[in-house]
Amino acid sequence: MRSEDRAGGPWPTWPPTYGSDEEDRRALFVLSALRGISPRSLISLAVERGSAASTLAWIREGRAGSDNDQAFARALDPDAIAGAAKACGARLITWASVDYPSQLREIHDPPGAIYVIGRTPPDVTSAVATVGARRCTASGREAAHAIGRGLALAGVTVVSGAARGIDAASHEGALSVQGPTLAVLGSGLDVPYPSASRALIRRIGAAGTLVSEYAPATPPSQHHFPARNRIVAGLCRATVVVEGARGSGSLITAEHAMEFGRDVFALAGSVTSALSEVPLQLIREGATLIRDAEDLLSDLGVEVLPTEATERLGLDDAELRVLAGIVEPTLPDRVATSLGVGIHEVVAVLMRLELRGFVRNVGGRYETTLKARPHRDRPVRPPADVDPGSAA
Amino acid sequence: MYGRVNGVTVVGVRGHLVAVEAHVGRGLPSLTLTGLPGAGVQDARDRIRPAVESAGLEWPLRRVVVNLSPGTLRKEGPGLDLPVALGVLAATAQVPAAAIQGWAFAGELSLRGGLVSTPGVLSVAIAAAGAGLRGVVVPASNAAEAALVDDLEVVGAASLGEVVGFLRGTWRPTVPEATARRVDARHAVDLAEVRGQGQARRALEVAAAGGHNVLMVGPPGAGKTMLARRLPTILPSMSRDESLEVTQLHSVAGLLDGGLIPARPFRSPHHTVSPSALLGGGTAFLRPGEVSLAHHGVLFLDEFTEFRRDAIEGLRQPLEDGRVVVTRMVGTVAFPARFTLVAAANPCPCGFAGDALRRCTCREDRLQAYQAKLTGPLLDRVDIRLVIPRLTKRELLGEQPGESSTAVRERVERARARQRRRYARFGLPNNGQLSGPLARREARISADARDLLASAVDLHALTGRGFDRTLKVSRTIADLAGADRVEPDHVVEALAYRSASPVPELERAV
């Protein structure tokens, strides 16, 4: 891994005045549009040449970069890129700018400049990344949503990658309470990717922040996403991994976070689930185990809002008994057998519970939702104590 | 030199009496057929002479003209071989003309003079009885089906020689044994054999009670086919008239082996089936398709998403009208086709979305495209949608055998009786046949239950169409419970049978 050849830092980084004057800014518009040259090579060039403008001139002269990049660098018009950025509402924040997020200055290969739409990225203390599988389970999605919501309610910016699944759910959680959220994209800010997240990205741009190190019109590319993940981890004081199968990009984000000396949290899942692979591995490597949003918020020292522990009081006797019978994804048959009632009655009770959000049907089996789980400090009273008159 | 014999041609499922006239006159030896004979009848020309000679009879070496009347009706099928041969024999006085009167004849001849099993004999017998004839003479192997018709004598003969002997009074047919008058359905399978899947078994009971179509979605090996195969066993027993209709359709299709079909049919065409095999058709002889062979029974379409689009589109008419109209160059025919549709599909292209044990490997865009196939206009006619999970060993082992088909069928029949009484004035048999507006007017739903349904719409658990479907299913559940009004409990259970996606977020508006 990269950290080995970098061991012992300090890592070479951009000159302090990089992107400070107008000429440098114009050069950065072009440099951010090059596709073949890595941030690390650009940093070496910048250290050597001293400024963005002279780096660009060096490339244009054919002394660095691939043939494609050289031709591209000569052909690109900085004003056109600046115009495209303006058109999509993005501003360029360069290394030399006071707005440049200071926490990004600490990471490996920080971007020389970022494009930002919406609010300025927050301080490191009030940003937490929530990442995980695109193909997640319903309960993973629910957990990510709860984490996003809880963080946002506490004023913490929820940072993620706007992908489907866990990313989207955590952004949604924050947006559901009009809280702050930030998405880092692996493409130009006017290229909403993935297309399924188009609407989500638009909403984040309007209510929160969109960040990318790529010039407008840059298409997504496979190597952009691992690079994007270093910015996600770099912006945040902590990274939470909710679900991830082997080979998942969330592992990369978590490793970046560890490398940068930030906290890593992992939501524990069943050892038999392929989606638990990354979180469990991270826990073994020292990440903090969390069971839910509550754990995370109290570990972060963020005020925990009271959860809706009284919700269950609205349930009647039959509903509570059925609910008590579901500890894992369970077939209605099993509930019927264990309670000794007809299948059609159980089906009806489960449907009532589902309509009220206490259980969900996953491929023909029922599992409980977060709402149905008792608050840890306040155990729910047994069904016998429930006043039948309060049943809805 | 003239003979006249009654034959029958079958158009669709209906038999039409045909007068077969034969004239033997001067001229070079030849056989001419007139009166709109179809390709199959033209085909008989070269078959009849060898058959007659093989039977030890004489073929006139003169000019023979056979006319099939009425001339406006296209005659099809091999059943006219026997009357054509007898017409010639009557014209040459080899059989007594008087003995032929009052009978209809049908059957295909072999070159050796044998009578071969012929499709559509039940329709022939029904037409003969309808025309007031005394009896029919048919191939011995088809005698059982002809004997199903009341007030008709049936002679089953194995060869042309026997038929001639019968007409000359030298051969006596054995009377076909009286077939059972009672419809006694015996099924090879039983609902009790399904272990686990309690929710699915219950949903099938509701489907049977209300005549609802069903969509089952689940991974391979979940037991979708096993469940579907048992639906006919819990449907109400067929009346004799229904059995006769089914038998007639199978007879016309040439699939009948013996007499009355007592059990509701179960047809499961493969997904590569052509539209004309599914819906009926053919070039010369219009044959009933799978939808008609499933009449009064169950049409099971496994791998529903793999069927040809034009075949699936064609199912809309039978699902709405209970019949299918087949139009070809040779004419237009309507076949009855009132069946319960059971469609089954995997949850995703790889088959394992939502499975407890295996992970789905499909790409998101393919999943979306697949899900779109499960929401077509045809599936609007499907009231009950089920997710069928694949059970783990542990889940299977813990389960007791379920109720037998007989026990479930008794409840189904009671629920059907309630529906028949309620909808007698509309001429509708069950809740499944109700239109949306009629369902809303006739469901007799309590105020609480209606509020509950409305709140499900608000929760986006239901769309407008989903509302009507859930209402109909609720009505059936109330009928199973013997309740006059639809109560909240019935609605809640019905809501559980509305979702066919194991990946809920893919299912936006169904």
What does this molecule look like?
The complex is a heterodimer of chains A (392) and B (510). With 392 residues, chain A is α/β, with parallel strands linked by helices. Chain A is 40% helix and 12% strand. In chain A, the strands form two sheets. A nine-stranded mixed β-sheet of chain A has the order 1-2-6-5-4-3-7-8-9, with helices on both faces. Chain A has a two-stranded antiparallel sheet with strand order 10-11. In chain A, helix 11 links the parallel strand 7 and strand 8. Mean pLDDT of chain A is 87; it is low at 1-8 and 378-392. Chain B is an alpha/beta fold. Helices cover 36% and strands 17% of the residues of chain B. Chain B contains 22 helices and 18 strands. Chain B has helices at 39-42, 45-54, 81-91, 97-100, 121-130, 143-146, 160-168, 198-210, 224-229, 231-234, 240-252, 275-279, 290-293, 309-313, 316-321, 364-373, 393-397, 405-423, 436-442, 447-458, 464-480, 488-495; strands spanning 2-11, 14-25, 30-34, 63-69, 103-105, 108-109, 115-116, 135-139, 153-157, 214-217, 266-267, 280-281, 287-288, 298-301, 323-328, 331-336, 340-345, 384-387. In chain B, strand 12 and strand 13 (287-288) form a beta hairpin. In chain B, helix 8 packs parallel to helix 18 (405-423). Chain B is elongated, with a radius of gyration of 27 Å. Residues 504-510 of chain B have low confidence and may be disordered. Chains A and B meet through helix 15, helix 16 and strand 10 of A and helix 8 and helix 22 of B.
